[in-house]
């Protein structure tokens, strides 16, 4: 794991160097807020986002810094610096809800409730046979 941390730190340093040398089409150097935050963060971890923004504006007075994008960038950089070994969040698995199949006919619901009231299929069959015998005797 130590080798992975060292390799990751080297890659981060290379990215920092690449961002420092970028320029616009007119030849002006590009101001990289993330790189500026990375430079100042190790000494000022305890500062809040607004205090850090004020300090950054003092360090770079000529630069226009968008507050909303600064806050999200500052938060992301701080998270990565405080927890460098934490990876991406694991995706959650959605629970599948099994749908109950509807009865095709209302008479099926009635038959099922009849079987339940009788206490099972055998008891329901006996009950129906006795009902059939009663109907035959009435004729």
Description:
61% of the residues lie in helices and 0% in strands. The protein has 139 residues and is mostly helical. The chain folds into two domains: 15-82, no CATH class; 106-138, no CATH class. 4% of the residues are buried.
Layout of helices and strands, plus pairs?
Elements: H1 2-20, H2 33-40, H3 49-59, H4 67-82, H5 106-118, H6 121-138
Helix pairs in contact: 2-4, 5-6
Query: Uncertain segments of ≥5 residues (pLDDT<50)?
Result: none
> How many DSSP E strands?
0
Structural class: mainly alpha
Q: Radius of gyration, Cα only, in angstroms?
A: 36 Å
Along the chain, the helix and strand elements come as: HHHHHH
Quote the average pLDDT: 76
User: Which percent range fits the helix content?
Assistant: 55-70%
Q: What characterizes the major β-sheet?
A: none
Gap from first CA to last CA: 91 Å
Summarize the structure.
This protein has 139 residues and is mainly α. The chain folds into two domains: 15-82, no CATH class; 106-138, no CATH class.
Fill in the keyword field for this structure.
2 domains; 139 residues; rod-shaped; single chain; mainly alpha
């Amino acid at each position: 794991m130590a080798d992975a941390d060292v390799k990751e730190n080297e890659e981060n340093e290379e990215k920092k160097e690449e961002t420092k040398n970028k320029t616009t089409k007119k030849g002006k150097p590009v101001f990289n807020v993330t790189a500026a935050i990375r430079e100042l963060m190790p000494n000022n971890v305890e500062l809040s986002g607004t205090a850090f923004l004020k300090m950054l504006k003092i360090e770079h007075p000529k630069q226009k810094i968008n507050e909303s994008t600064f806050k999200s960038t500052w938060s992301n950089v701080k998270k990565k610096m405080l927890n460098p070994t934490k990876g991406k969040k694991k995706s959650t698995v959605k629970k599948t809800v099994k749908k109950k199949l509807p009865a095709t006919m209302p008479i099926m619901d009635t038959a099922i409730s009849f079987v339940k009231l009788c206490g099972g299929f055998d008891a329901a069959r006996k009950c129906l046979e006795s009902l059939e015998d009663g109907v035959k005797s009435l004729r």
